[in-house]
Structure formats: structure tokens, C-alpha cells
Amino acid sequence: MAEKKKLDLNRRDMPKQPPHIRRRNFNEVALGYTPELAVVEAKRCLQCKKPLCVKGCPVEIDIPGFIKCIADEDFAAAIRVLKKKNVLPAICGRVCPQEEQCEKTCVLVKKKASSAIGRLERFSADWEAAQGPVEIPEIRPPTGKKVAVVGSGPAGITVAGDLVMLGHEVTMFEALHEAGGVLTYGIPEFRLPKAVVRREIDYLQKLGLKLVANYVVGKTKTLDQLLEFYDAVFIGTGAGLPWFMEIPGENLNGVYSANEYLTRMNLMGGFKYPRSSTPIKRHRRVAVAGGGNVAMDSARTALRLGAEEVYIVYRRSRTELPARLEEVENAEEEGVVFHFLTLPIRLIGDDKGWLKEIECLRMELGEPDKSGRRRPVKIEGSNFIMPIDAFVVAVGNGPNPLIPNTTPDLEVTSGGNIVADPKTGKTSIDKVWAGGDIVTGAATVILAMGAGRLAARSMHECLTGEKLLTTGTEKGLGEGEEESER
Ligand code: FAD
What we know:
Layout: H1 19-22, H2 35-43, H3 52-55, H4 63-71, H5 75-85, H6 89-95, H7 102-105, H8 117-130, E1 146-150, H9 154-165, E2 169-173, H10 182-185, H11 194-207, E3 210-212, H12 223-229, E4 232-235, E5 241-242, E6 255-257, H13 258-266, E7 285-289, H14 293-304, E8 309-313, H15 325-334, E9 337-339, E10 342-349, E11 355-368, E12 374-378, E13 384-387, E14 390-393, E15 397-398, H16 402-406, E16 432-434, H17 437-440, H18 445-464
Parallel strand pairs: 1-2, 1-4, 2-3, 4-16, 6-14, 7-8, 7-14, 8-9
Antiparallel strand pairs: 5-15, 10-11, 11-12, 11-13
Helix pairs in contact: 2-4, 2-8, 4-5, 4-8, 5-8, 6-8, 9-18, 13-14, 14-15
Bound molecules: flavin-adenine dinucleotide (FAD).
């Protein structure tokens, strides 16, 4: 009889920069597993016959399979297994909300010791990168079909990668001067180093992807004009239009959307001023409105820019925070102060038009709303003032209306998201597909990738008539969320 495996409930921590040091630098916070730690962690996996973790993964990676390879110290095999289902393991290993997906369904979760799947995924991808140039896989012979991909975020990257491998000629159009979407302009360097994103884009270019930056579809050329040159088009333009709170004072100096704040830092290198030519003002007391990953990223960025006091102002309680728990804990360790059940209602400026304080109201929690979270209710008369000189609004983003506005036949929802078939990604226009945040509303990297994979398969089928085997990534297209606060 096979010997029963002894449970090891000691989930291995990943080494991190200490909080007092990292709060003042932009280097990556988490340092990754060493090979020794990775092997020990991998050996904790129970190798379930019916692995629930795979069910929790939106792209259905063979999780026990890649972990077994690590446990056997065959790291090259581990990355091969991962890449069968996930083209961006170094990125997903860093930013996927595993605690809500694969790790949540791991059987060890009941003992509060689920396998550290994300950390092991990251380890495998980083190990591969450290070995030198990645092998170029076999690409199918050219089909003679031309595809345009609009937007270079995770949805666009996945579509482009899959279609290049299938032998199509793919051109990716990106409005900004650097590719990567939110991975490049939104998520800060200390959580996702830009070199990791660049590595993935470079790899696609080596496979044959043509990248055209500084090209705004809807302005430089319309979608209809692209369709004159391409056999198929994929729209993966994300949800990059920031929402504001629509409270008095939002046009004061010192008030930013999180998008502007983070883009100035990540894409324009504001933190490197004067080495970079785009400065960002150093504020002393910064408040960030919101409770998602975007809010955490903004608050932690403010600390690194030298702010003395940084606050998260959130209208619900800690339990409802939509940000990843790991990032909330990192923010707390670094010194970000949380004001829960607090709603900013007015921004107050000085006589020169600079923000000097914010007026807030205390809230209490009522009945659950459509999102399942308890609705925040105002406590009348509980107003108070906080002295603040920068206010970052991180309460969500919507879709950019540029393409729908210049493409009359493209069907969109009342919220402006493109309507796409959940099984194929097909839109209301022939030869046009869409996926990622532009369809679902602000969501996650892995869901955008899942949508990209689904669309690539459908596009290939329409272009060639060949039906590809399904890979289970149909979960990629979901319903839009009522309130994102991601
Ligand atoms: P995007 O990544 O938004 O990419 C769209 C691209 O299209 C952009 O580069 C844009 O410039 C380009 N574009 C737009 N319009 C045009 C046009 N007209 N012509 C040409 N190009 C155009 N998710 C997680 O899973 N984990 C996290 O930890 C996490 N943290 C986040 C932190 C921040 C600050 C933000 C903003 C988001 C975060 N997310 C996180 C969400 C995640 O990044 C997104 O869900 C994901 O990037 C969506 O991918 P996408 O490809 O649909 O769009």
C-alpha cells in the first residue's frame, strides 16, 4: 500500500525587502523563492488526483503537474507545463489574485496552508529568464492572413501570441509609446518590474509580432480603415478612462486621477526626475480615495515619493476591501494609514487654487448591495476635516469611448463596454473581435488573458476553417461589475 504523505502545513514565505527600506525605494518588494525554498514548498503539494486548484484557475493550468516538476527539481519541465496554458507566467505569478482563485480551492486552504501556487509560478518563470534567451518554439507555416490587434495589454498580448504561433501575420497597435497596457503604465515597478513586461513583449516580437506604438485607433486611423487592410481585428483597449467622485473641488491643483498619478510615475518615469523630463510634485500629506489594487498602488507610490503621511480613505470596512490581501498588508507594513467607513465629500483649496484639506463624512454599513458587499450608509452630521495637500481618486475606470464613437455599427452596453459573444469574443461587426476590460469592465490580468485566448481560437477558425481543441478558457469573458475599485 502507498505510504500516506505527511501534511506539511508550513507554507513558505517569500523573502521581501524590509518595510522601512522598501517604503523609500521603487525596487521590487517581493524577492522570489530561491530554488531550495521552491522545492520545499513544491513538496507540500498533495498532488490530488482530482485537483480543485485547476478548477479555480481561469486558464486551467496543470497546477499539480508543474509543481511536481519543481518538487523533482526539473525546473525546465515546470515552465514548459506552465506555458502550455499561460503565456505570461512571470506576470501572473506576481499579480494574479491567487488567493481568490487557485489557492482558494486548494484542499489545504481548510488548514490555512494552501500551496503557494503563485509564488511557484513566478519562480519557474524567473528561473527560465535567468537561463538566458528563451527558446523560440516552432511556429506554423504562414497562412497569408493579416490580423490587427488594437491595444497591447494582457488581452492583446495573448491574442497576438496565439495567432503568431498559428502562422498569421499580426500587427499590434498601441496608443502609448510603450506596449504592455496596465502592466506597463499602471502597476508600479515595486510590484511588477517593467523589465519583466518588456521581456514578454520582446519575446513576441522575436516570434514575428509587428508592434506599432503611438498609434491611436479611432484617431490615427478608424476601425473601418483598418478593416480595409486586415482580415480580422481584435479590440483589447482596456478600461483606461478614470472615474471621478464628482464632488466639489476636484479641479484643484494637487488632485489626480490614479491613472494620471501612476502613469506619470510608471510610463513617464516621474520618480527619476531630473533624470526623466517629466517631474511629479512631491506632496507631504496624501489621501487616496478607494480600496482596490489601484488605490494601494497609488498610496504606496506616494510613500516612495517621500510623502510623510499617506491615507487610504475608503467608504466601507476592511472586510470589503477589493484589493489583494497581500497588497493591503504590504501597504500597512509600509506605514499607509487606513480610514475605513469614510467618504470624502468636498475638497477645499487655498487662495492660489491648491488643495489644502478634505471634508469627509463617517459611514456605517447597511444591507448588502448587488455586488454582495454591505452598502455604505452616510451618518448625517458626522463631517470632519483632514489637512491634505494631494488627493488621488482611485474609485474605478470605464472604457474609453474613442473606438465606439468612431465606429457606428459597433454595439456597446449602456456603460460603453463593447458587446462581445462570451464564447467567441465576436462583436456586432463582421471580422471584429473584442476581449478583456473593454468588454467586461475593469477586471484582472488573467481574465483578460482568458478572453484573448478565446478570441484567438475563434479568429483562427474564421480565418482558416480549422477548429482548434478547446482549452477551457471560456471562463475568460464575464459580466461587467457594477463597481470596480480594483
Ligand atoms: P489594458 O491592460 O488596459 O490594455 C489596453 C491597452 O490598449 C492600453 O495599453 C491602451 O493604451 C491601449 N489602447 C486604448 N485605446 C486604444 C486605441 N484607441 N488605440 C490603440 N491602443 C489603445 N489585475 C490583476 O490581476 N492583479 C493586479 O494586481 C492588478 N493590479 C492593477 C493595478 C492597477 C493600477 C490597475 C489600473 C489595474 C490592475 N489590475 C490588476 C487590472 C488589470 O491590470 C487589468 O484587468 C488588465 O490589464 C486588463 O487588460 P486589457 O488587455 O483588457 O487592457
